[in-house]
Amino acid sequence: MTAWVLSAMFFWLIWTGTAWSQSDSVPDIDQTLKWVVVSAGQGNIQARENLAVWYYFGDRVPPDYATAVNWLKRALDGGSALAREWFADIEFDGMGAWSTREKLRWLRFGAAKGNLKALEILGEKLFTGDGLSQDYKEAIICLFPAAEKGSARAQYLLGTAYAQGAGLFADAQKAAAWLKRSAEQGFAEAQLELGRMYVLGKGVPQNDEAAGKLLRAAARQGNDQAKNLLWTLLQSRRVEPRTDQEEREWIKAAAEMGDPEAQARYGDLWFTGKKVPAHLTSFSSNRMAVFWYLKAGRRGNPRAQYQLAQMFSRGDGVETSLEKAFVWTSLAARQNNQGASELQKVLIDKMSAAQLTRARRAVDKVDAQAQAQEKTQVLYLPPLN
Fold this sequence. Notes:
Blueprint: H1 3-16, H2 29-41, H3 45-57, H4 65-77, H5 81-87, H6 100-112, H7 116-128, H8 136-148, H9 152-164, H10 172-183, H11 188-200, H12 208-220, H13 224-235, H14 244-256, H15 260-272, H16 282-298, H17 302-314, H18 322-334, H19 340-350, H20 353-376
């Protein structure tokens, strides 16, 4: 068979390659590879370039760095301008597979050949500035074809670009459209952001039910920000947990992200023994309750402060300390917490003058710390309008 016939077959295979995944009948990849190898052996430069990319990124064949380098060298020897552009100054000494510099060259080379994985990775690096100078416009050039080819990550990043106006004119509807395509493939970050858009009615009609469905899907994949947003919606009764375990996960995630009310609620779960592992003793549960009440109390949550006062006065999960109990009940009383003022009076009757002096000094110190933490608290979510 003549070289020009092999070349023609090769170009036809490459040209139709993007449609294989959409066809009802998938061609024999092994047979396709055989023809491409034959064409490369006949001197076809594009065949050698493609084999180098395929073996490096594991596209159509298992990844094999040594074989990728072999085909790349043969492409260089054959006069490949594209290979020379990215690899003329690279010495293949066996260490290149771990060289950041060479990895970036492979990404550039693969992206130029239209490799999906290369386009996706390079686009993300350019978009986020990870290992490369941030360049939104060049990132978009990579992300568009990757997104069109079905990359969920590229679709998510493209949606983010439209949402932020990063490299593209801001367009909430286009952002939602790309995020939807990614979310439908189960990409958790896209599910979170599209769920947030449904919560706010931005780019899509406001719909708590649709938001809850998307956020639950992201939460099931361990996305804590989705759980945090679900907790925020739960507080205003815009969604309801389906199980006790689901509610616990939402509260825990929000507590770990610094929400003082969630921290107090999580402390409640431990203190009451509800929705906690059955093998834990009451003492262990109380210690965990104190841990979370302290976090919430230091952020100024009055209910947690009152709970701490009661626990320190009784010795629930902590050593009994009337001074600490007085500090926390005083802080809660300053915020008009029901019951705190009464407990404060009871403690005053039990404490010595020296204890009261020390405790009153501590009250102002802890209160100042709580106000400072409240001012510096990180806000993870936009206000729900």
